[in-house]
Amino acid sequence: MIRRLALLTLLGLGLATGARAAGPSERCADTPAMAAALARLARPDAGLMIAAHRGAHSRAPENSLAAIEAAIAEGADIVEIDIAVTQDGTPVLMHDRMVDRTTTGKGGVEDKTAAEIAALRLKRPNGLVGDEAPPTLARALALACGRILVDLDLKSDRLGPIVETVNASGMRATSLYFDSDPAVLARVRALDPGARLMVRLTTDLPLAELLNSAGAAQVVHADLESLTPKARADISKRGLRVWLNSLGDADARLIAGDPGGVEDLLGLGATILQTDAVPELAAFRR
Which residues pair with residue 98 across a beta bridge? Predict the structure, then answer.
């Protein structure tokens, strides 16, 4: 606990003073758990991996430290979090452009300072106000370090502070950057040539062109329309993992005891499932 608090303090001071790490650190990849997770990520045949959507947000506020902690406890391999950047350049966890839905505040995330975001309180799944503020990306990564892989869903085009925070945190090797626009991912790769990417497959652009635009990727985020037999064959040939969402009907069926929807997704070639039902999917995998 003391070491974690010290790390949080160090990261907070680094952001506040504009300090930069001497070079990207990989220390969060050094634990046995993360070494095993990265080895599995690189091998689609190593079995299903589970991604917790906005953390375990059916049990804690979405995009909160508590939701990340719950995702780890429930057996997720990856936690998906949404990243925005405040007016004064601090990356924070927030899905919406406005803070109204998930916090006690009102207005745009990027119109507020980090101090103003820290003064807000997140709403629990039942709508009641909790005692946690929207966390900074630095604090979220410090919590995840050495314990779980992270999917960074980019909600800002101000990429520099995000890449800098990831590299300073030691989570560089254990984080995936995701955006639907390959040009955004190309900008991430320009900022950090070693960044790990997840590209969004659509019916508009063949996989080869998508990767040529965004850069090499580790994961392909697909859907039922884009995951054609040709696309599946191309993904398999390249040795990439396929990310599909079980959100909605498949999750609801799984929670009710019917794994049919999940089995259908696996039959389409999914090797990572993003879910709102982490414990149920973990039980199904076992």
Answer: 108
